[in-house]
Amino acid sequence: MQWKERDGVEWLEASLPDGARAAFSTRSAGSVKESVAPLAGALGLAPQRIATARQVHGAELARHGRDGTAATPDADGHVIDVPGAAALVFVADCLPVAVGGPGGAAILHCGWRGLAAGIVARGVAAVGATDAAVGPGIGRCCYEVGEEVLDAFAPLGAAVADGRMLDLAAAARRLLLAAGVERVEVAGLCTRCTAERFFSYRREGERAGRQAGVVWLDPEGA
User: Fold this and answer.
1) What CA dihedral angle connects 21, 126, 110 and 28, to 10 degrees?
2) Which residues, 6+ apart, have CB-to-CB distance to 71 below 8 Å?
3) In this structure, are residues 89 and 74 in contact, taking their beta carbons and an 8 Å threshold?
4) What is the pLDDT of residue 72?
5) Domain limits of the chain?
């Protein structure tokens, strides 16, 4: 992943197979829940062409491309498979996870409920993902959880938790590898710790803005 900046907007960008790219925004783009325009402009994407959904902390995927486009469904992940397509998830401590392979690319909103419900395996299977990029999210340093959450991730082994502190990124990485992803890149940045760069629900509560995880397929010939 590389830091990039344009017009005062800063983001982390990752390359995925077959012309797919992913970006993870910072608060420099403002809250994308209010407007995606500043981030879209910096990325060179048309705001109206970026698919979004009402996120419900589940494992449903919306598909946009050869088989049609879903109209703002309840979904926590998006699959794109045609050049020029783009999709976005909103995050403010949950992980944005981008995956790519021969079947296209997907962007996944991965809180603990979505991870436990299998959104990673579904996203990987949807595109035959070989590569993944895990964006910034709340770190083990700041993510204290209860027994219900710890029990949900116990099958992944002790390394994903230290007492009551859960490492969401480590859990996502293990799930990606178990689903067959060959290469996983992890940003390793905690949104709660890094107030100057990221919004955080745990730090700011209901007033917290939202970052974005965006994935897009470059137009043919670009």
Assistant:
1) 20
2) none
3) no
4) 55
5) 2-217
Tokens of 151: 């029990």
- The pTM of this model reads 0.94
pLDDT tens digits for range 111-156: 999 999 999 999 999 999 999 999 999 999 999 999 999 999 999 9
Cα 89 to the chain's mean position, in Å?
6
Residues contacting 67, CB < 8 A, separation 6+? none
- CATH 3.60.140.10 describes domain 2-217: yes
E strands, 16-124, are: 20-25, 50-51, 61-65, 68-69, 77-80, 86-91, 95-101, 104-110
**The amino acid at 36:** V
Strands 20-25 and 9-15 turn out to be: antiparallel
Structure tokens at 49: 């062409």
Which alpha helices (H) appear in the chain, and where do they start and end? 37-43, 112-117, 119-127, 147-153, 168-178, 201-204
What angle, rounded to 10 degrees, do the helices at 119-127 and 168-178 form?
Answer: 40
Q: What is the pLDDT of residues 189-218, one digit of tens each?
A: 999 999 999 999 999 988 999 999 999 998
Q: Which residues contact 55 (CB under 8 A, 6 or more apart)?
A: 74, 75, 76, 89, 90, 109
